[in-house]
Amino acid sequence: MLKIKQKFLGLAMTLTLGLTFFVAPAPAEAAMDTLTFADSEHFNILGEIDDEVTNIQVVGLDGTTGMTEEIADPENIQWTTSDSSVVKFLDGTTEVATIDDTDTVKIKLLDEGRAYITVHYDAMEISAYVVVESDSAATPSISGISVQVDAPGTANDLSVTNQTVYLTDLAWLADQYNTLQKNCSALHALAMAGNTHYSDPDWAENNLTLFNGGGYVYGIGSDFDSGVEGWQYYVVHSNSSMDVPDYPASRYELQSGDTVVWEYKWLH
């Protein structure tokens, strides 16, 4: 009987010690393998001359889990601009072309044009596309524009050729904060094409589903983003050269003779 009790006590002590020294592993921290902006609206910045944009923050991103985290050593971050005549950083009140040692910046829009601001950190980088509009360079209408929409079925296919886009005909897009206001964009062309094809001046307003201030075309007619497939665009110029922009159609400024092609395809 004594041996049985000793065995029982030994087992109990083993379990007790095991429980005492067992510590549950801490949740894994995000494995930062790329960069992103804390506010997704800062991937595309639209404004006018002398506008200032504040609190543009870069953070680390785990591409597998989608978790973000602040960068622990901001002293190793550098910000640059692709065109310092269009946009610069503000170091206090001083306008500078580069700025270091910070994860959060303020920028000033200086002149009409297009530029990228880029963050560099630990062999990684990420850019924001900046568009500055001005009254002096406005194009409230543009001619010779063609549009093709290749939907997954046939219900929402449409095509128009050699049309003129007028901003005044698409006044509802002025409420879309992420959309060119003084110049005709590829999104304006899509809206014009829908109205023209269906002979209905309100078709686009009632049948285009837009998010992020026009920056994302979620649906054309009854064809919506599925999460796997969605709407993407490219532009063919009159000389047959092609653009596949990495920024929204709402920011793409048209040239006379452009053809804007919309396809419903795998997202990537």
From TrEMBL:
<protein>
    <recommendedName>
        <fullName>DUF4430 domain-containing protein</fullName>
    </recommendedName>
</protein>
<feature type="signal peptide">
    <location>
        <begin position="1"/>
        <end position="30"/>
    </location>
</feature>
<keyword id="KW-0732">Signal</keyword>
